[in-house]
Amino acid sequence: MKKRALIVGNGVSNITFVADFLLSRGYQTAIINPNRGETEQIASNISVPAFCGDGTIPEILKETNMQNADIAIIMYLRDEDNFLAAVLCKRVLKIKRVVSVLNDPNKLNDFYRSQIDSVVCETTSITSTIDQRDLLDGMATLIPISGGRVNILEVTICETAPVVGKKLWEIELPSDVIVGCVLRKEQSIVPRGDTRILSGDTLILIALDKQEVTAVHRLTGLDLKK
Amino acid sequence: MKVLSKIRDKTSLVIVGCNFIGRALSVALEKKGFNVTLVDKSLEAFEKLSPEYKGNALLGDATTENTLAKFSFQDLEAIFILTSSDNTNIFIAQMIRQKLKGNQRIIACLNDANRSDTYNIFDLETVSVETMFAEAVSSHVDSLINGEHI
User: Fold this and answer.
1) How near does any CA of chain B get to the CA of A55, in Å?
2) Which chain A residue has its CA at the smallest distance from B112's CA?
3) From B16's CA, which of A103, B53, B82, B106 has a CA 20 to 30 Å away?
4) Is A58 part of the contact surface with chain B (CB cutoff 8 Å)?
C-alpha cells in the first residue's frame, strides 16, 4: 500500500515545499490550511488534495481520510495550535509518526511528553549551529538529535589530551554522557569500563541535555566555555 | 492588601485571562475572600480592572514556563483558564496539569461550544459561556411568556 502523509498548518511556500518533497518520496499527500487564499495557492502550486479548515478540530482532520497515515507534519505559527493539531493527529487519526514545528524552545519537553514523535525548533537549530561551530574549533563534530535534547559527538583524542592512557572508568564524565564507540585506526570498539583510551582514538559520545561541552572539556582538556 | 477571611486565608485561586469574564470572576471571587491571582500577558488588560479588585495581578504569558514557574502550585485550590482561544486554554491546561501534584481543579472556558469534543479528548472540565448565557436568557423568556415577574 502507498505511504500516506498529511501536512497541517499556515503558509504557502513551506507547505508546498514539504508536500513536493513527500510526493517525490512516493507519499500520497494531503494538506490542511486554515486560510482560503493560501489553500488555493497551494492547490495551484501542486496537485494534492487541499482542505481549507482548522486542523485543530477533530472533524476537519477526519475529512482528509488520513486515519492511520504514516506521517503528519504540523506547521502552525502558534505553538498552542501546533500542540493541539499534533496530539489530535496522534490520538484521533492514529497517525504513526507526527512531526511538529515549535517556536518557543522552552516548550520542547511539553511537546515530547505528549507523545509527539519529532519536534523541529528553529531557535534551537540556531543555537546548535553555533555550538557545533564552537565545538568544531575544539576538534569535535556534533550531530543534534530531537531538537538538541540529545547530541551525538565525534571527539578525536590528541597526544596532549588529559585522558590518554586512562581506562574509561577512570575518566570523570558527566552522568548523562556515554562513550558509545571508540574508533582506533581501522578498528571500531564498543568500549567497556576497562578500555584504555589512546592518542589518536576517535570517541563517539552520546550526550543528554547540554552535557557535551563538559564532556569534550574533560576529554580533550580544551576549554570550550570561553 | 485587604483583610482576608480567616478560614479562606490560604485558599488560593488562579485565573488565567484578564478578559471581561476573567475580570468579573476575579472581582467576585476576591470579594468572597479568596486569595485570587489574575494572570494575563497584556498590561492593557489589567488597566481595565475594576478599582475595587484588591487581589494579585501577574503579568506574563501563561503558555510559558517562565510564567508558570511563578505560580505556587502547593497552595492552589483551583485554576480557571479563561482565554478567548480554546487551543490556548487546552495547551495551558496540559502544561499546568503536569505540574500539579494534588487534585486541584482545572476549569477552562469553552469559547466555541462545538469544540467540547476536543476538550473531552484531554479530559478537561469546561464551562461554556454561550450555553450558560442562552440558558439564562431562555429561562427569562419562559417566565415572561408565562406572565411571571422576573
Assistant:
1) 11
2) A57
3) A103
4) yes
CA separation, residue B120 to residues A104, B108, B113 (Å) = 26, 11, 12
Q: Which residue of B has its CA nearest to A55?
A: B87
pLDDT tens string B39-51: 999 999 999 998 8
Q: What is the DSSP letter of B28?
A: H
Query: Side by side, which strands form the sheet with B76-81?
Result: B56-59, B35-40, B12-16, B76-81, B105-110, B125-128
Measured from the Cβ of residue B89, the count of other Cβ atoms closer than 10 Å reads: 29
Yes or no: say if B90 and B118 are a contact pair by the CB < 8 Å rule.
Answer: yes
Per-residue confidence (pLDDT) for residue B1, from 0 to 100:
37
Provide the β-strand partners of residue B15.
Answer: B38, B80
Å between B91 CA and nearest CA of chain A: 6
Does the reported pTM lie above 0.95?
no
* A13: contact with B, CB 8 A cutoff: no
**Do B88 and A80 lie within an 8 Å CB cutoff?**
yes
Q: Is B8 exposed, middle or buried (0-12, 13-18, 19+ CB in 10 A)?
A: middle
